[in-house]
Amino acid sequence: AQSVSQHNHHVILSEAASLELGCNYSYGGTVNLFWYVQYPGQHLQLLLKYFSGDPLVKGIKGFEAEFIKSKFSFNLRKPSVQWSDTAEYFCAVKAAGNKLTFGGGTRVLVKP
Amino acid sequence: NAGVTQTPKFQVLKTGQSMTLQCAQDMNHNSMYWYRQDPGMGLRLIYYSASEGTTDKGEVPNGYNVSRLNKREFSLRLESAAPSQTSVYFCASSQILTESSYNSPLHFGNGTRLTVT
After folding, report:
1. Which of B10, B31, B52, B65 has CB 3.0 to 4.6 Å from B97, enough for a Cys bridge?
2. A51 contacts in B (CB within 8 Å)?
3. For residues A102 and A36, what is the distance between their CA atoms, to the nearest angstrom?
4. What is the chain B residue with the closest CA to A4?
5. Judging by DSSP bridges, how do beta strands A64-68 and A56-58 pair with one another?
């Protein structure tokens, strides 16, 4: 069965610091990859997605993610975070013929 | 444009009680889903409905039932609540079943926080 691992459960950083959240998956075939964000008290929203093409994907609010097939990874990055980036971030993977599988989430706290 | 609406927002049940969580979407989506969110475990799929008239089990269906009442509405029922069902429940919808299309992201409701004592 496919699985999705997010290495960090909690991340605390200061405004203007750079952010990188790790995501690894277990499925070896063709995959489609997503990052969802959940701001405090809100529902999950799609942050960015990768289907094919350029492995560096740009999403909303200055986020980007890089798909590295050889490492089965899809790490999320932002060069300079803001207080408003405080949220929980979920990586999700969909392999052909399988359901969308979510990682355990990473809570990010940005200190002003 | 409301998107996906869930009711109630909060609920406290005693062990053995039953309840139904309601979900409605106004985006004319074909597929709907129920997830539960638990700390450190991400979102796990309980049941889903690929289209009106069909429902299927997800990862963690035990203790739950669903009804796809029409294209807009998809309800989740707990027949006999247990403390292990304490969780945050999210309903979601997508244009078509995510298994069938890569271009069909999920749209989530605001969640229902359920506590079973």
Report:
1. B31
2. 102-103
3. 9
4. B42
5. antiparallel
